[in-house]
Amino acid sequence: MSKFFPTSHLTSIPCRTLSTHHTLCKPLPFVPLLTPALPSRFSLSSPLSNPHRPLSLHPLPDSCRHRNLSIRAFDLSSETQKDESSAEKEKDPADSDESGGDNGSVVKPDKEYPSGEFVFEEFGAWKKFVVKLRMLIEFPWRRVRKGSVLTMQLRGQVSDQLKSRFSSGLSLPQICENFIKAAYDPRIAGVYLHIEPLNCGWGKVEEIRRHILDFKKSGKFIVGYVPVCGEKEYYLACACEELYFPPSAYFALNGLAVQASFLGGVLENVGVEPQVERIGKYKSAGDQLIRKNMSEENCEMLTSLLDNIYGNWLDKVSHATGKERENIENFINEGVYQVEKLKEDGWITNIMYDDEVMSKLKERLGIQEDKKLPVVDYRKYSRVRKWTLGLSGGKDKIAIIRASGSISRVRGSFSVSSSGIVAEQFIEKIRSIRVDVDLLFSESKSYKAAIIRIDSPGGDALASDLMWREIKLLAASKPVIASMGDVAASGGYYMAMGTGAIVAENLTLTGSIGVVTGKFNLGKLYEKIGFNKEIISRGRFAELTAAEQRPFRPDEAKLFAEAAQNSYKQFRDKAAFSRSMTVWYFINKMEEVAQGRVWTGNDAASRGLVDAIGGLSRAVAIAKQKASIPQDRQVTLVEMSKPSPSLPEILSDIGSSMVGVDRTLKGLLEDLTSSNGIQARMDGIMFQQLEGASFASPFLNLIKDYLSSL
């Protein structure tokens, strides 16, 4: 019948539970999807559609059923593992410069790279005068009243892409830039943050928290107000100078949990047999279809990820509040639900309503009670240019290419230009940066370096490889650095392998070097419902993916397995080559790093998959180092991705939909049975189609609709 590729999707609910969902898709023959066992939104705070649904856990293996998900779930702590991994690197000659890739990259210890830490420096008298002059000549819509308070509401989804003025939602680049601008803006007295449930991964949360701490270096105040609070929201809020909750605040600091659901029994009852071929014992994609409980390998991986996130949360909260880690764990285990208890134990500054906090800010700024507090919101302040504040860079330019979402080879018929990573568009941007090299046969003078900002769980294997090739070609002419967001796993990590250095957040989800593919056998289902399908074919393997009414023949199963193994070897060998390891070394010493396992940034760094821990600022510092640009010299960061979606695109999409309703419906139906390539969607269950396939049955479509609604 068809190939599918299921992927785990971890989401969280208010009781701090990670849910595992999966994606089904049909790749092209023998072309696996590079999608990880975990999605881009590894979120411990995003609410589900039914927040009151009780937690239900499926039976676990004996080795995991009574396992205590504590910080030290394994014999070796992350620190010990890091030390041992470092010792192995020092002893083994395969880690020397002689094994470097064609872009001259070698795995370096984290400490050898510049930190990129934010250093606040007061402007001199002349620069202050220039800034004031620029403020006077600015357009009215970019002016800010002196003594204003910057207000930002951090809530919901946080995109890693730039946003236009017509776009809703938050943009991580603009949030971070607003903090930097506010630190130097003489018109901004402080920041007032409204923090509510966030729907993003821990990588983005870490980046925002870092900028909160950087802003505090300016000496200006930053106050947080949190009406609805979970672990992720408090993780941000505790970095503020002062923190306030309303008397009726919803908060749940109960700890973190993980759960997984499985369809193996359901599919068995309806007569559907998934035939999955996966390479990598930790590649849990597919488990939801073929298993009825959690595998020991998946349990081990999820436990490790959970321990890393929970341990990091305890450490950072302990440092911010001045409390002992043990005391924080005891507080969580008490099951506190009264806001007053938070104040008594020093978790918050005070209990106040929003208007009371505003009055307190007036008092702090010396504003009369009957006067209005001057504020500027996030959206308006995003229009303020860095040039106005004297923060624009110098003549040296560094290109930033943002790659967010699932990976596809070409743009779909019903997707806007900003949805996901489209290989053909991404490649155009890469080539535009190195075009001078191709035309003049010399080093490009336009950009000194490039940074690939990746926030992707993977997707199309072919698209990932094509982008990897273009990144390698660019890296041969100038420094290219990968900066990872929430997730850069499988196909996302594949892209990063082509760069000269990889920077990840400590809780970025990365790795997942493995492949999985398969097909459905619907023979029993067809027998139950009285449906019959017959195929006339020419060629020994012509029915390999077309005959969903029967299982694989032995020779077909062998071919399928060998093709999957070949794809895995290509992925693994390129990982070894790109990470400056010989294939022999990778196979014999680092095979455990692959096997489809997802790692946090910290663990990936200790195993040589990542070079440095940090955010975009550290990636810029490393790019400057490799481009021989002094660290104290300003550079101009050029965003190669336009803000999205723009108003013309929105109107164009609406117009196209209204004008061609019949064509749209027809195309949608065709998309259920054919495809221009392989895609990987992380939301719910998404089926993919074979290129040029014309053998799909209406019964299969009904099954697709049913499973998609789960």
From TrEMBL:
The keyword Hydrolase applies. Residues 80-94 have a biased composition (Basic and acidic residues). One of its GO terms (molecular function) is serine-type peptidase activity. GO terms for biological process: proteolysis. Keywords: Hydrolase, Protease, Serine protease. Residues 77-110 are annotated as: Disordered. Residues 216-366, 474-628 form the Peptidase S49 domain. It comes from the Eukaryota. Belongs to the peptidase S49 family. This is Peptidase S49 domain-containing protein.
